[in-house]
Amino acid sequence: RARATTRMDIKERIRRSPREEEAPVAAPPRGRKGGAAMLLLRWSLPAAALVVCAVLLLMLAGGSAARRGRLLDADPSVGVVARDDPRLVRPRDEDGTSGSPEVVKDKLLGGLLVPGFDEQSCLSRYQSVLYRRISPRFPSTYLLERLREQEALQKKCGPHTELYRKAIAQLKSGQDIKVMDCNYLVWTAYSGLGNRILTIASAFLYAILTNRVLLVDGDKGTADLFCEPFPETSWLLPSDFPIKQFKNFSVVSPESYGNKLKSKVVHHSRPAFVYLHLAHDYSDYDKLFFCEDNQHYLQTIPWLILKSDNYFVPSLFLIPAYQEQLMRLFPQRDAVFHHLGRYLFHPTNAVWGMITRYYDSYLARADEKLGIQIRVFDTETGPFQHVLDQVLACTFKEHLLPEVNTQEPIVSPSKARSKVVLVTSLNSGYYEEFRNMYWEHPTANGETISFHQPSHEEHQDSDKKMHNRKAWAEIYLLSLSDVMVTSAWSTFGYVAQGLSGLKPWLLFKPENRTAPDPPCRQVLSMEPCFHAPPFYDCKAKRGTDTGKLVPHVTHCEDMSWGLKLVDQS
């Protein structure tokens, strides 16, 4: 009880973030012989000690910053956490006990984030470091430079600025189109939450590469789910945007770049805007977006309106004009979404409250957290026995879960360890089967296993506010796991693994309702899969296998025709 009370006190102190109070200095004794000498001695010794400590701290800080290749401001970028806080990462010793916790954590994520935001308006931005393991991947210096430049561009040209008003006026006129100080990329809300997160990240990278301001459509609860990522401006497209029909654009719209290419009118005019259709049903002409010649033309268009449900980043790495810049931005090719996702996507306070309440209640105190994400692409809701069999076969084979002992009622553990399993699925049946199996039988190694599932919505409904909040909260909770199992083809799982920095075990997609053998494998990288890439050689003007052009773009483990980034170094 005393330990629990202490932990609650610690959490309260962290949330309130009070300033440390200075201890009062005792007054020197009066009326004694030698009082002045005693006073001088009392003050001189601590002062000397403080000077020595300050010098040592500066030397240590300088060495640490040099090793990481960046400078850290101690005040705004580092959060100091109480040593016995249960959320701190504690490395396991060989005897299963906790080692020394990581006390100081970089709340600016290696420079990805900037200080100065109103912390109360978006608690997750700087508090997430209390819940997440420190990433082993550091952003490049060049990426940090470009993020700061993009932030300045967003502020200079964003909504309600004079330059934005001029750009809108020109867009309305549709005539005398000329190069503007500010060019824009408008992202259209489309498809499920996982797809939307991946396409925003893709659009943001494209905006950085082409020096465009990114504005996102507020439909489907964008503002309700994500905090503003850019300081002193908004990324939300204003509701009075003059192209009212942009949300209804599709593959057949005459405004699309593919249809303009098809009708051969694209180079005879310079319209005020062009619609980019990069969704799963895009045509061969739409796919020519990924050819360098077409990128040169698109650079002259002030407004681009994008609709996609794909993580199209891998194909950006195949465009020669962007390759050098991308290599500098991401020396570790498999950390693109990991960095961009942690920069862009901060849960709003409403969602952050759901995340932290659940984590603190059910996940925080376990020795290990295993996340299992189950997504079944079937017309029926399930649960299905072959899926249950596949998950168990994977977790047993990879030693992620201990097997149960069906012969003895109690197994005495040699080492007391607890493991918590977070299950995310639209269906509650899998969670119930797991929970009952480990309740009715002891584990073979004596480990204590508990299962938790935050919600079971039965059906995906991306137009409902609470459904989206729960989905985002569960993606984020899944990303806080120590080990992860995800489902093939699932963008929900892609986002969680990218935010976490983990390479999960991937459950292969079952065929004919039969559990595949092998049931799973660990992925090559944490990067999401581009499900519908083009297979076209722009120079040779013929079809080709785009998964074999460069060593860092290869085919996905779960989709043989998909593309993903890997780090061959």
UniProtKB/TrEMBL annotation:
From the record, give the transmembrane residue ranges.
39-61
Query: Which portions of this protein are annotated as coiled-coil regions?
Result: none
Q: Which InterPro entries match?
A: XG_FTase
Instruction: Give me the stretches of Basic and acidic residues compositional bias.
Output: 1-22
Topological category with respect to the lipid bilayer: Single-pass type II membrane protein
Q: What is its EC number?
A: 2.4.1.-
What compartments host this protein?
A: Golgi apparatus, Golgi stack membrane
**GO BP annotations, alphabetical order:** cell wall biogenesis; cell wall organization; xyloglucan biosynthetic process
Q: Output one GO MF annotation.
A: galactoside 2-alpha-L-fucosyltransferase activity
Question: Keywords on this record?
Answer: Cell wall biogenesis/degradation, Glycoprotein, Glycosyltransferase, Golgi apparatus, Membrane, Transferase, Transmembrane, Transmembrane helix
Task: Map out region (Disordered) in residue numbers.
Answer: 1-31
> What's any one GO cellular component for it?
Golgi cisterna membrane
Highest taxon above the source species? Eukaryota
Gene3D superfamilies hit by this protein: 3.40.50.11340
Please give the chief subcellular localization of this protein: Golgi
Family affiliation: Belongs to the glycosyltransferase 37 family.
Question: Could you tell me what this protein does?
Answer: May be involved in cell wall biosynthesis.
Q: Please identify the protein, giving its name as recorded.
A: Fucosyltransferase
Recorded source organism is Aegilops tauschii subsp. strangulata
What does the organism's lineage look like at the top? Answer: Eukaryota, Viridiplantae, Streptophyta, Embryophyta, Tracheophyta
